[in-house]
Structures are given as C-alpha cells and as structure tokens.
Amino acid sequence: MNPLRTIPRAAFGAYVKAVRLPFDQAAKLLGGRDTEIALDHAEAGARDAAGAVLGDDELRQDAAQRRAAADQREEALELEAEAERKRKRAREQAAQRKRRAAETERKRKDLADRAAAEREEAIRAKERANRLQALDEQAEALEAQEDALAARDEAKRLKDAAGAIKERRTS
To answer: pLDDT tens track of the chain, all 171 residues?
Structure first.
C-alpha cells in the first residue's frame, strides 16, 4: 500500500461523503430505495473515475465492489417488488376464490331452499288431495246412506200401502 495514494483516496472518500450527505438525507425523507441505489451507483462511478485519473487500483477495486453491491441491492429490490406483485395477485386470487365459493354456497342454499319449498308444497298438495278424497268418500257414503234410507222409506211406504190395499180387499 503506497502512502502517497492513501492520502488522495482518503480525501476523495471524505469529499464523496460530504457531497452525498444531502442526497442521502433527501432519499431518507422521500423513502426511495431506488434513489439510494442510484446514489450508490453514482458514487461507484465517481470512485472508478477518480481511481482511473489517480491511477489508484484499490480505489477502482473499491468502486467495482460498491457497484456490485448496488447491483445486488437493486436486484433484491426488484425481487422484493416481484414478490409483492405475486403476493398481491395471490391475495386477489384468494379473494376471487372466496367470492366464487360464497356465490356457489349461496346458489346451493337457494336451490336447497327451493327444493324444500317444493317438497313442502308437494306435501300440502298431497294432504289437500287426501282430504278431498276423504271428503268425496264421506259424501259418497252419505249419499249411499241417503239412498238406503230413501229405499227403506220407499219399501216401508210400499209395504204399508200394500198392507192397506190388502186390508181393504179383505174388508
């Protein structure tokens, strides 16, 4: 390590930190990780350019490492964004499946309610038909009883009339 190269490297590092400080503060306030990564890329580029101008291979190597680290953070940020998109899509699909399941359940319940109502109506219709048949049978029985009573009354009247005629003939 050449001490003559260490001084410019340290001075450059301090200068970059001083220049970058307001940008870092703004990025933190705005909450932009993209901005921080862009600043890291810019710093790596500045360190690489300064290393090339100063002929400092360590500064250029440091720039390459910083650029690689910024690239990795950028890739991680993209992966996080993709993962969030997938989570959001999964939540939407789950919500859609839940809505479809609720709709299917509602339709199933409606069909079951309709079937139950139809069964109840069929039971009531059968009860009405049975009651009507019982009333018809009762009416027929009453009619047969009336006919029997009428026939008995007619037979009695005829018997009485025949007895009266017989008595008139014998008298």
So the answer is: 555 456 677 777 788 888 888 887 887 888 778 888 888 898 899 989 988 888 888 889 999 999 999 999 999 999 999 999 999 999 999 999 999 999 999 999 999 999 999 999 999 999 999 999 999 999 999 998 998 988 898 888 888 888 888 888 887
What's the distance, CA 161 to chain centroid?
A: 93
Domain boundaries, the chain: 3-93
Query: Cα dihedral angle (76, 79, 80, 83), rounded to 10 degrees?
Result: -160
How far apart are alpha carbons 159 and 70 in whole angstroms? 130
Closest CA to 44 of 15, 23, 65, 28: 65
Instruction: Mention every residue, 6+ apart, whose C-beta is less than 8 A from residue 66.
Output: 40, 43, 44, 47
DSSP string, 141-153: HHHHHHHHHHHHH
Q: What is the pTM of this model?
A: 0.54
